[in-house]
Specification:
Rossmann fold; binds D-malate; EC 1.1.1.95; alpha/beta; 7-stranded parallel beta sheet; 5-stranded parallel beta sheet; 313 residues; phosphoglycerate dehydrogenase activity; D-3-phosphoglycerate dehydrogenase; 12 strands; NAD
Length: 313
């Protein structure tokens, strides 16, 4: 098996893949632009953030499996892969706790304005009055949009903080909500209307693009918190900016529309950055999650070697 790894992967995973008989090219510095030239002799391509375009897939004449070392597969041109009969596998659930932890971090940071306060301290400014009022979380309603593994993990931490947790997702039923100990919301607007904190955990796709838009923001309470650790395109950025200005919505974001690639340095929406608490799409970036993902990648390659079929997707 010729395996091209185009993003970081742990040393132990590289050793394990070699032990499976794979011949490894480890090139974690490759960009999406480099990938079409690099992929020609690879049978298996492993990526995390590097985008896999239709061109890359066309040029990968020997490709039979693409593994996304993460949960979402929106960085891969699935149409082209499927038209060429190339399998695409992901690692669902393996970074759920890491992303949930960051979602909670952003919620607290947005409520307490931790980033703004730090910036003032760095300028030598002490401003206890300005930062002296926050909503607090205990007894407040945390509404989860999207109850996959990350949404459920976030709900559990919210409960541990004493929050009342409600949820909406397309497939959520009253029975499931009861089983997971969350309040069932029959519509996304209803879910938004009761939220003190709205935490978004949706996969990217045509049906979720800009799902969190004007209608949802209009339903939210003034001054409520919105956190997105899922995919940037799920939130309509223009509508969010408007809601921040007109309703005092406090936003904590880890993902953005037109997000830079992993190796790019330019963040183009400084306007938005000035209005939010933000991180750099690092939800899954903990040692624990990286190890869990790396082990899953090895498991997928092993299963593929033995059966010709991918796990997942
Ligand atoms: C995921 O899809 O699991 C994450 O977004 C991974 C990443 O950091 O790119």
């Amino acid at each position: 098996m010729n395996v091209l790894i185009a993003d970081k992967l742990s040393d132990s995973a590289l050793t394990d893949l070699k032990a499976l008989g794979a011949s490894i090219r480890f090139e974690p510095g490759l960009t999406a632009k480099d990938l079409p030239d690099a992929v020609s002799d690879a049978e298996i391509l492993i990526v995390r953030s590097t985008k896999v375009s239709a061109d890359t897939i066309k040029r990968g004449e020997n490709l039979s499996l693409i593994i996304r070392a993460g949960a979402g597969v929106n960085t891969i041109d699935l149409e082209e892969a499927s038209s060429r009969g190339i399998h695409v596998a992901n690692c669902p659930g393996k970074n759920a706790d890491a992303v949930a932890e960051l979602a909670i971090g952003l919620i607290i940071a947005a409520d307490r304005r931790i980033a703004d306060g730090t910036m003032d301290l760095r300028q030598g400014v002490w401003n206890k009055k300005l930062y002296g009022s926050a909503s607090g979380l205990k007894g407040r309603t945390l509404t989860i949009i999207g109850m996959g593994s990350i949404g459920r993990a976030t709900a559990e931490i919210g409960k541990a903080l004493g929050m009342r947790v409600a949820a909406w997702s397309r497939s959520l039923t009253e029975e499931k909500a009861k089983e997971w100990g969350v309040v069932y919301c029959s519509s996304i607007e209803k879910a938004a209307s009761i939220a003190d904190v709205l935490s978004i955990h949706l996969a990217a796709g045509k049906d979720t693009t800009h799902l969190i838009g004007k209608k949802v923001f209009d339903s939210m309470k003034n001054g409520a918190i919105l956190v997105n650790t899922s995919r940037g395109e799920v939130v309509d950025t223009a509508a969010l900016k408007e809601a921040i200005k007109s309703k005092g919505i406090k936003a904590g974001l880890d993902v953005y529309e037109n997000e830079p690639g992993a190796t790019e340095k330019d963040f183009k929406d400084a306007d938005l950055a000035a209005m939010i608490t933000g991180t750099h799409h690092i939800g899954a970036s903990t040692d624990q999650a990286s190890e869990a993902i790396a082990s899953e990648v090895v498991r997928i390659v092993e299963a593929y070697r033995d059966s010709g079929k991918p796990l997942h997707q």
